[in-house]
Amino acid sequence: MNFDLTEERQMLQDTLRRFLRDRYDTATRNTILDSDSGMSADIWAQLAELGVIGALFTEEQGGFGGKGFDLAVVFEELGRAGVVEPVLDSAVLAGGLLADLGNEAQQAHVETLIGGGLHMAFAHGEPSSRYDLNRVQTTAKTDGDAIVLNGHKAVVANAEAADYLVVSARESGAVDDEAGISLFLVPSDAKGLTIQGYALLAGGRAAEVMLDNVQLTAADRLGEAGSAFAAIEARMAAASVAQCAETLGAMETATELTRDYLGTRKQFGRPIGTFQALAHRFSDLLIEMEQARSAVINAAGHLEEDRKLREINVSSTKNLMGRAGRLVAEESIQMHGGIAMTQEYELAHIAKRITMADHRFGDTDHHLERFIALVAA
Amino acid sequence: MDLRYSDEDKAFRDEVRSFLKEKLPKEFSDKIRKGQELGRENQERWHAILNEQGWLAPNWPASFGGAEWNAVQRHIFEEEAAAANAPRIVPFGLSMLAPVLQKFGSKEQQDYWLPRILSGEDWWCQGYSEPGAGSDLASLKTTAVLNDAGTHYVVNGQKTWTTLGQHANMIFCLVRTNKDVKQQEGISFLLIDMDTPGVEVRPIILLDGTHEVNEVWFTDVEVPVENLVGEQDKGWTYAKYLLTHERTNIAGVGFSQAGLAAVKRVARAEMAGGKPLAQNPHFAARMAQVEIDLMAMATTNLRIISQAAAGSAPGVEASMLKVKGTIIRQEINDLARRAVGAYAMPFASEAVEGSNAGLPDPHDAGPVAAQYFNYRKLSIFGGSNEIQRGIIAKVKVGGGA
């Protein structure tokens, strides 16, 4: 047993924390939130230069990390600072799938991505799929040498900025079959591809992606035809580790802000933290923080295990983070009072990051049911 | 014990229902249902429609031009209005200031200000909270000093969380007129024209992107002594009286019922695992749990309303209703965002202003996540839930009032 970070990861954590503390304060971030692109190209380039993106890929893929604890270290720091740049979407999700499944030609993009020169998005969810990974209505039909995609992808994060989209589509089987799903690498300027973008409540941007007879060839497919489900599920596991670590970092910030406020805000002639009614509730938050930290360690530590053990830990962690996150976000706002309701206060953004994380990759209810099914199987 | 409404109550409910069906513009109810801001002009139009009907001031005595409804009738109206997605009437003039003027104001003040509230000529906002005086309201620091001639108070200080202050032309304020006595004994109640030089309104943008509250700054603002309500230094008494009126409809039963109906509608349309979300055992259980709590609270609310109709003033029960009512409303807000899944993520900042064209919203649910965040205020404002619990404990455990 050893719960210490390796020297390399410790260095990465220190470097990233220092960089974000110096360069990503509330005012900077709020300016980015107000911008049309919803992200800073400058910050993106600097994150790449620091090796943040490279840390999310294995050595074989051209990076220097890529394990569960590499993701956890990076994303906890991104979460602590409320970073809205699409590291998760470009690198962990779409970039990860490309690295996992791509042939040599396709993998060439990974190097550009690690260098900060490429954006990507993963277009998988659909209006009626909710959180089911297997439910794909978008079709890919072979027509001579061509493969033709039709469908509607919902709330695709980072779609507007992406140079390439990784798009899931069904080549065979019923709408909810795991078999029959393929992935395609689609350039964002492909004919028939429409991207209707909008801002997200917790920062960043997403889009509805419409595929109307998008013409591809077999060379655009990632991996084998109809057999992408296992890779999608594994990538979602990695993305869930990243996202849970990010939420943990955001929860750290929320509790730190709340602790500071309880110590300085005075009402009735004394700091409000001296009222037992608040002090006990803050103690409960700290207890849940330890639970959350352990849950993230469980998910990260089992990411390289076999499928069942990995997924049990993903679902248990997503479920716990959904519950603990809601508690921390709501209680931090409540204990602050009105000030936390204002957009310019750091906690407002942090609370939105924590809460809205539960709307991606399955919410706390979804993962409770999934956990029940996994342990029964 | 009889849980049924009387025939008169039922007839009244029918009357309210047909009025809403006939007079509530669909454009307004659509906006409310979708969580869009109504805007000043529409607010004023709805105000005028109710005034024309004689239903604008349900809690005012008839002698002042009110409808003089009893508590059960008010409850019925609130329930029907929420179910029909009618706009909320801006309460600051009608249900907060007016009762204070009716009880403590001079004849001149009543004759001048009350008709202007009904006609909509004045839009009032409330100057209570300050940056350092939230839950501890009596610690407020905004000062009012009588000038040497005795004609004007000179006001200096800052108020905050002033709801819709950007639309208001008048503000009623608690100000400190005596620093040498116990906090509560040196406070006065002043009516201030916001066009007076030295008044400045600065917007506060809330975490959901809305502009509904403001800071109001006062720099050497001259207020005629005629605008003092009641006696100098007795404002705390009037403020407390006003707060009992702020607490009418505190349980928000109608809002919760309308909110739960919306959640059910979305849950029937949203698919999860190939079946409607409403059939998902886990989500169904969550909805049922809050519905069960709401059914009980609706009866608690009616029990307290019946006592009030019989003439006894709600005391600690109002605090209980506020705590339970906000817990239930906030749980429904949580379900509403949860129900739409990933479609809770898009940010409808434009939607709040009036248009959400281009935003995906497959079930026409509205900006449910933004509302979830906005309604965190329910357990903070009007005396936070912590303050309410303190009141309950003081009365029920400590034995004091």
Description of the molecule:
Chain A: Belongs to the acyl-CoA dehydrogenase family. Chain A: Residues 6-109 form the Acyl-CoA dehydrogenase/oxidase N-terminal domain. Chain A: Its cofactor is FAD. Chain A: Residues 230-365 form the Acyl-CoA dehydrogenase/oxidase C-terminal domain. Chain A: Residues 121-203 form the Acyl-CoA oxidase/dehydrogenase middle domain. The complex is a heterodimer of chains A (377) and B (401). Chain A is of the alpha+beta class and 377 residues long. Chain A has three domains: 7-118, Acyl-CoA dehydrogenase/oxidase, N-terminal domain (Butyryl-Coa Dehydrogenase, subunit A, domain 1, Orthogonal Bundle), CATH 1.10.540; 121-226, Butyryl-CoA Dehydrogenase, subunit A, domain 2, CATH 2.40.110; 230-376, Butyryl-CoA Dehydrogenase, subunit A, domain 3, CATH 1.20.140.10. Chain A has eleven helices and ten strands. Chain A has helices at 7-23, 26-34, 41-49, 68-80, 87-101, 104-114, 229-264, 276-301, 307-336, 346-356, 364-376, and strands at residues 120-123, 139-143, 146-157, 164-170, 181-187, 193-199, 205-217, 221-222, 266-267, 270-271. A four-stranded mixed sheet of chain A has the order 1-4-5-8. Chain A has a four-stranded antiparallel sheet with strand order 2-3-7-6, with no helix packed on it. In chain A, strands 9-10 form a two-stranded antiparallel sheet. In chain A, β6 and β7 form a beta hairpin. The radius of gyration of chain A is 21 Å and the shape is globular. Chain B has 401 residues and is an alpha+beta fold. Chain B folds into three domains: 7-89, no CATH class; 122-238, Butyryl-CoA Dehydrogenase, subunit A, domain 2 (Beta Barrel), CATH 2.40.110.10; 250-396, Butyryl-CoA Dehydrogenase, subunit A, domain 3, CATH 1.20.140.10. Helices cover 46% and strands 13% of the residues of chain B. Chain B has a four-stranded mixed sheet. Chain B has a four-stranded antiparallel sheet with strand order 2-3-7-6, with no helix packed on it. In chain B, strands 9-10 form a two-stranded antiparallel ribbon. In chain B, β9 (271-272) and β10 (275-276) form a beta hairpin. In chain B, α4 runs parallel beside α8 (253-269) and α10 (316-339) runs antiparallel to α13. Chain B is globular and about 80 Å long. At the A-B interface, β6, β9, α9, α10 and α11 of A face β9, α9, α10, α12 and α13 of B.
